[in-house]
Write a structure and sequence with these properties.
This protein has 15 helices and 11 strands. It folds into 2 domains: 142 residues, NAD(P)-binding Rossmann-like Domain (Rossmann fold, 3-Layer(aba) Sandwich); 203 residues, RNA polymerase sigma factor, region 2, helix turn helix motif (Rna Polymerase Sigma Factor, Chain: A). It is 46% helix and 15% strand. Helix 2 links the parallel strand 2 and strand 3. With 383 residues, the chain is α/β, with parallel strands linked by helices. It starts with a strand and ends with a helix. The radius of gyration is 20 Å and the shape is globular. A 7-stranded parallel sheet has the order 4-3-2-1-5-6-7, sandwiched between helices. The structure holds magnesium ion.
């Protein structure tokens, strides 16, 4: 049977690679909905190739421009994203939008009973408790596309959680893994975007350089697999060959290995529990080295902040996420320096009044308020 997909964020890095997996397996997948934020040129080519039934552009002005160029109706804004997420003919929703905008459509998709192929980790960071409780209640599978979580998902297999002693999440270390704190003072955007092993979107590449991405992945793992934070560790592994590991209580460790090619975890998520042929180059072991080092949480403070926010709980992870969202955008707009990113996150966490058992409205309100506060602070930093 054909699986019908809704791809939220189809023109980004994960979106285009998802469509490549679909392209290689056209007999298995039907692209039902596509959505982009702004990149309507790329979206137009995708519409031509995949003939979706629903198209959405989040940026309303761009939606109008596209509307004049294509025969299909173009949905706009968050409302359009939600329509693409809940359409009755959709089986699986790939959530590959960037940042906080993924939260609302993912929740609506879960409530509509759709299987979630989750690439938008911000959703679980901001509202993991609520989202996973909802998914369990609805009986909706949430399959991670993130390479580390895809690895853990496979390593765990069917073993029950109380038989696991640790998850070991590997980190490439990002663009600046070998730089000292002093050297980070004057790094540029292009330095930060130059990731050593993975080719990804801009936001996540910056998050990898600060290691905030790894922090998000720790929080994501806690919610996805329902393990206490103390059992989730991170380790630097520069080669990005081991994508993560699981240690069981008898000290057996299972690791998942492979190329740094996101099409592999995407293919897993789209087909789970089945596996299909994927036509990508085979991994060549010959001449490969595997190194592991401790991560210096003093230098990569974002990772320490993420652990802290997760330990505190309540609305704090949502603050971490929102403040980081705004700060990374400001860095990419050349408004703040690289080290300002984590400094702004720290300030936002320090001034936040926590709500311990938030509902969704509290989470949304926290995200909105944090965004306003951090934007204001960035404005005050301008010369
Ligand atoms: Mg990852």
């Amino acid at each position: 049977m054909m699986k019908r997909l809704s791809i939220l964020g189809s023109t980004g890095s994960i979106g285009t690679q998802t469509l490549d997996v679909v392209r290689k397996n056209k007999q298995r997948f039907k692209v039902f909905a596509l959505s982009a934020n702004q990149n309507i040129d790329c979206l137009m080519r995708q519409i031509e190739e995949f003939s979706p039934e629903i198209v959405c552009v989040v940026d309303e002005a761009k939606a109008d421009i596209l509307s004049d160029k294509v025969r299909i109706d173009v949905e706009k804004g968050e409302k359009g994203l939600i329509r693409a997420a809940v359409a009755s003919d959709v089986d699986t929703v790939v959530t590959s939008v960037v940042g906080n905008v993924g939260l609302q459509p993912t929740i609506k998709a879960i409530l509509a009973g759709k299987t979630i192929a989750l690439a938008n980790k911000e959703t679980l960071v901001a509202a993991g408790e609520i989202v996973m409780t909802m998914a369990r209640k609805m009986g909706v599978p949430v399959i991670p596309i993130d390479s580390e979580h895809c690895a853990i998902h496979q390593c765990i297999g069917g073993v029950s959680m109380d038989r696991i002693s640790r998850l070991i999440i590997t980190a490439s270390g990002g663009s600046f893994r070998d730089k000292s704190f002093a050297e980070l003072l004057n790094v540029t955007i292009s330095d930060a975007l130059n990731h050593p092993t993975w080719s990804m979107g801009k936001k996540i590449t910056i998050d990898s350089a600060t290691l905030m991405n790894k922090g998000f992945e720790v929080i994501e793992a806690k919610h996805l697999f329902g393990l206490p934070l103390e059992k989730i560790e991170t380790i630097m592994h520069p080669q990005s060959i081991v994508h993560s590991m699981v240690e069981f209580i008898d000290k057996n460790i299972i690791a998942q290995l492979g190329s740094a090619d996101m099409r592999i975890p995407i293919c897993y998520a789209l087909n789970y529990p089945d596996r299909i042929d994927l036509d990508v180059p085979k991994f060549d072991f010959v001449g490969q080295k595997l190194e592991f080092r401790e991560i210096d949480k003093g230098r990569f403070s974002a990772l320490a902040y993420a652990y802290e926010a997760c330990r505190i709980g309540g609305t704090m992870p949502a603050v971490l996420n929102s403040a980081n969202d705004v700060a990374v955008l400001a860095f990419l707009d050349e408004k703040i320096s690289f080290l300002d990113i984590t400094r702004l996150v720290r300030d936002a966490m320090d001034t936040h009044k926590i709500i311990m058992t938030p509902d969704l409205d509290d989470i949304f309100a926290t995200c909105k308020k944090t965004k306003e506060i951090v934007e204001k602070q960035i404005l005050s930093m301008q010369p």
